[in-house]
Design goal:
- Helix 1 (32-51) runs antiparallel to helix 2 (56-70), helix 2 packs antiparallel against helix 3 and helix 7 (250-259) runs antiparallel to helix 8 (264-278).
- The protein has 8 helices and 13 strands.
- It is of the alpha+beta class and 324 residues long.
Length: 324
């Protein structure tokens, strides 16, 4: 296992800040520019909203929505296709100040599921936190969100990837589900963690899932504690092998370790090592992924165990940075 990590320092005390990720996998060089562009656009919007005094939970929703609509990432209009050749989307977000969260699962007609998750958090008064499939879409329509045809969410890049995977799959016996190798397939989520000027933290994550999966499969992304988590002490967003992330409650355990006083870079590295050691696929390969973590003082850290991870950030008084 090769693990890479880093920190986003915040000199001069805690102000508004945020970090984003655009997935952790073997991101090909010919799409790096698109990933960097998408993250820059998202960070510019997040920076503006934070400077205007927007609450962290709105900021993370709008930042992630930019990446859902951009098309470079495995989310929204860039999502990978299921075994049936359709797009199915999951998203969730959490407010660290209140522990309120909202999530949608398996939606097919919503371009920006993170906005619907945010509306669910705002509108349900705690009576609903997760909505799935047609139920989530009916809620979205009732709240004024436009519904689109599933075909409108399928991009040419992912249609071509789907056709290639379908050709490769015929080499496998029909009793064994075909999935591309873990690190070479989009492990795709997009995510954001933010601290607003009032010191409130929030986290959001959105995904198009794994390519060529059976319809209805749900990973970690919409589940609080797994794909995202936030408290008054820290906020986290994860990306990678969803079943493994959910099994070890990657984001919740990372946030808890920060509350115990451990350093951020040590926490993100330790949690990913733990997941890699504990969870292995049928071929014996350890689970891989990436993690963003932001604490109440505005300090941020990231780590990943895949060949590459798209990530970036901004803090008040500093410049936007992005890298793959």
């Amino acid at each position: 296992m090769t693990l890479k990590s880093g920190i986003q320092p915040v000199p001069g005390g805690a102000g508004a800040c945020l970090m984003v990720h655009g997935g952790a996998w073997d991101i090909p060089g010919d799409v790096h520019a698109d990933h960097l562009d998408g993250m820059r656009q998202a960070l510019r919007l997040g920076r503006r909203l934070l400077r205007e005094g927007a609450p962290a939970r709105r900021v993370v929703a709008e930042v992630v929505a930019v990446m859902e609509s951009h098309g470079a990432f495995d989310a929204g209009r860039g999502a990978v296709l299921t075994l049936e050749g359709t797009v199915e989307l999951d998203a969730g977000l959490m407010d660290g100040a209140t522990l309120d969260y909202g999530g949608v699962l398996g939606v097919r007609r919503i371009e920006n599921p993170v906005r619907v998750a945010h509306r669910l958090l705002e509108a349900s008064d705690g009576r609903m936190r997760l909505l799935a499939c047609e139920g989530a879409e009916r809620f979205a329509a009732a709240q004024g969100f436009p519904l689109v045809e599933n075909e409108a969410l399928i991009c040419a890049r992912e249609r071509a990837r789907y056709e290639q995977l379908r050709r490769e799959a015929v080499r496998y016996h029909t009793s064994h589900p075909f999935l591309p190798p873990q690190d070479r397939a989009p492990q795709g989520t997009v995510g954001c963690v933010a601290r607003d000027r009032q010191g409130r933290l929030a986290a959001a994550t959105s995904t198009g899932g794994t390519p060529f999966r059976p319809s209805g499969r749900v990973g970690d992304t919409p589940l609080p504690g797994a794909g995202y988590y936030a408290t008054a002490q820290a906020a986290a967003s994860a990306t990678g092998w969803g079943e493994a992330i959910a099994a070890v409650l990657l984001c919740a355990r990372a946030v808890d370790r920060v509350a115990e006083g451990l350093g951020l870079e040590a926490v993100v590295s330790d949690r990913l090592r733990h997941m890699h050691t504990r969870i292995r696929n049928p071929e014996g390969r350890g689970a891989t992924g990436g993690l963003l973590l932001l604490d109440a003082h505005g300090r941020g850290a990231w780590a990943f165990t895949t060949p590459r991870m798209a990530r970036g950030g901004w803090y008040e008084g500093g410049e936007i940075w992005v890298e793959v």
